[in-house]
Amino acid sequence: MNRREFIVGATAAGVMSGAFAKEGPAGLRIRFLGTGASDWKGLDERGEWRRWSSILVDNAVLVDFTAQSVDQLPAGVRPEAIFYTHSHRDHYDPAAAGELGVAVPAVRGLAFGETVEERGVRFTCVPANHGTSRTGERAGMFLIEKGEERLLYATDTGGIMAEAARIVGIDAHVRDGKPITALVMEATMGVGYEDDFRIYTHSSVDTVARIVRVLTATGRYLPPPGRKVYLTHLARTLHGTHAEVAAAVPAPLCPAHDGLEVVFGK
Ligand SMILES: [Zn+2]
Ligand SMILES: [Zn+2]
């Protein structure tokens, strides 16, 4: 299978996940329907495409979704809920649900710290360090929990804010905190963009690497051996090709790609 097939998706993996769906997923199943930032518009001159960032959780729930990712949903999957992080157009497009044959969802706000359970998976909204042009809107991200797994899906955000860390249970002031076991985080910027103005609203590869080092050293990130930290929301203009990014990032970081499916836990 070549890179282009991976990026464009619609591979055998989609068929497989449909089969898993009938049996009921074990573990926490994350399928990346998009891994790009807003500057992606389609196949680029390198023959690659990262759709706007979106994930499918346990074949049933979406976090962010736009029309770009309609072709990435496995056949037969009809999402039951969509959690949106914020209203930027590369994340938020309720009308796109209409293209899936389901009703355009009624959208309601979530409070930070509020947990909603869907299909046995708990989604808790925590604040992101990210701004929008809408007065009063605050961007969020999600702690996604199932069984012993605690995944922080962090996009869009410049680092992890103290208030988010407190709610998640990884803040310095939380006595009986709970470590996260998995991390998917945005790296809008590649290596060498630490002085980029977006560093206050987005993260870079170096941001994620530093966070992983600190959380690991302090016992706040406790993954099983060998687990990767997946990077998403990669800007077309601030990264090389997928292969170049994969070669450039330090372990345990790993760029996700459209169509990638990961199961956390058993
Ligand atoms: Zn974005
Ligand atoms: Zn944004």
Q: CATH H-level name... which superfamily?
A: Ribonuclease Z/Hydroxyacylglutathione hydrolase-like
Unreliably modeled segments: 1-23
Query: What level of helicity do the residues show?
Result: 10-25%
Summarize the biggest pleated sheet.
Answer: 7 strands, mixed
What is the CATH topology?
A: Metallo-beta-lactamase, Chain A
Hetero ligands: zinc ion
SSE succession: HHEEEEEEEEHEHEHEE
CATH architecture: 4-Layer Sandwich
Give me the side-by-side strand order of the main sheet.
Answer: 5-6-7-8-9-10-11
**How far apart are the termini?**
27 Å
In total, how many domains does the architecture comprise? Answer: 1
CATH class: Alpha Beta
- C-alpha Rg (nearest Å): 17 Å
Structural class: alpha/beta
Shape: globular
Question: Features of this protein?
Answer:
266 residues; alpha/beta; Metallo-beta-lactamase, Chain A; seven-stranded mixed beta sheet; five-stranded mixed beta sheet; 5 helices; 12 strands; 21% strand; disordered N terminus; binds zinc ion
Structure write-up:
This protein has 266 residues and is α/β, with parallel strands linked by helices. The chain has helices at 3-8, 12-23, 162-168, 205-217, 242-248, and strands spanning 28-34, 54-57, 61-63, 81-83, 115-118, 121-127, 140-146, 149-154, 182-186, 229-232, 253-255, 261-264. It has one domain: Ribonuclease Z/Hydroxyacylglutathione hydrolase-like (Metallo-beta-lactamase, Chain A, 4-Layer Sandwich), CATH 3.60.15. It has 5 helices and 12 strands. Strands 5-6-7-8-9-10-11 form a 7-stranded mixed β-sheet. It has a 5-stranded mixed β-sheet with strand order 4-3-2-1-12, with no helix packed on it. It is globular. Bound molecules: zinc ion (ZN) (2 copies). The site of one zinc ion has 7 residues, from loops.
